[in-house]
Amino acid sequence: MTLYLVIPCYNEEAVLPETSRRLKEKYTALMEAGKIGRDSRIVFVNDGSKDKTWDMICDLHAADPMFRGVCLSRNRGHQNALMAGLMTVREECDAAISMDADLQDDINAIDEMVDRYNQGYEVVYGVRSSRKKDTFFKRTTAQGFYKLMRAMGVETVYNHADYRLMSRRALEALSRFDEVNLFLRGIVPLVGFKSTTVSYERGERFAGESKYPLKKMVSFAFEGITSMSVKPIRMIAALGGAVFAVSLVILIYSLIRHFTGHTVEGWTFLAVSIWALGGVQLLAIGVIGEYIGKIYLETKHRPKYVISQYLNDENEKE
Ligand code: UDP
Ligand code: MG
């Protein structure tokens, strides 16, 4: 089988030499064992890096055709870079595995993923069996994220990041998801097909810094929920219903106060009510506005990425 690895890279010059060395070793071993074809490739997607990442990818490609590079015209974020890579290679491979450049996800799980593929699974999710090596902060925020997603009714695979194998057929199906707000962990389960999981231990980032600071993590979680679930709207609607019920009680109460002649006294109460309702309304408008913003973006049908260059075997013939 022809297996492609797709690796998004954003300012990864610190990890690329080691990553490419380890991956080449792994790939060579897999080829020698006859598990994957000699035409398998490792594809780095440069997500508009500001450092030497793309130069390094070009050098890797020049030195060994096992490596390929896809260069995006600017930074579009992890999810878009991944999609760009997968969609570029989907017609050339039998299956593609996506993984991070820092190799925090154990590359030895590739063997098992390939075995599962050969058993007929079209989507194989890599699942983290333990996060001991993550910082306490990363671990708790990440696990909170998975729990929140579930509570919001988004179907995701617990403790699965974007380390997964997808068959050509699954990739083909994925290509038909035309959304601009891309949250692959939520979309891939919607693609369907026979799927399974493979577990591994998550390691440390061996060099460089995380490209997901807190700000990006929060916006990623927010994106995930609002692009996959309408539950927030329903929660706002429920809150509106509850507030309305409370206002009926207040109406009866204030009528009783009125008819018994204690009118001025209720001023504090009124002032508080106005503020509380105003707050709830603003909150509701904010959430609805978020969805309208998404509808607006979707109707534009903007391309998710623009590829400026694709280094593949054809380049060499020129
Ligand atoms: N990444 C990317 N574009 C971005 C941010 C990140 O392509 O705008 C890539 C990054 O190079 C890495 C992967 O996404 O290969 C995951 O990033 P990182 O390892 O920093 O995230 P963490 O493991 O801390 O969640
Ligand atoms: Mg990482």
Describe this structure as you would to a colleague.
Helix 2 (53-63) links the parallel strand 2 and strand 3 (67-72). The protein has 2 domains: 3-213 and 303-317, Spore Coat Polysaccharide Biosynthesis Protein SpsA, Chain A (Alpha-Beta Complex); 231-300. It is elongated. It has an 8-stranded mixed beta sheet with strand order 7-5-6-4-1-2-3-8, sandwiched between helices. It has helices spanning 16-32, 53-63, 78-89, 109-118, 136-151, 168-174, 184-191, 214-228, 231-259, 267-300, 313-317; strands spanning 3-9, 41-46, 67-72, 95-98, 123-130, 160-167, 195-201, 307-311. Helix content is 52%, strand content 16%. The mean pLDDT is 85. It is built from 11 helices and 8 strands. With 318 residues, the chain is α/β, with parallel strands linked by helices. Bound molecules: uridine-5'-diphosphate and magnesium ion (MG). Uridine-5'-diphosphate is lined by residues 8-10, 12, 47, 75, 77-78, 81, 100-102, 104, 205, 210-212.
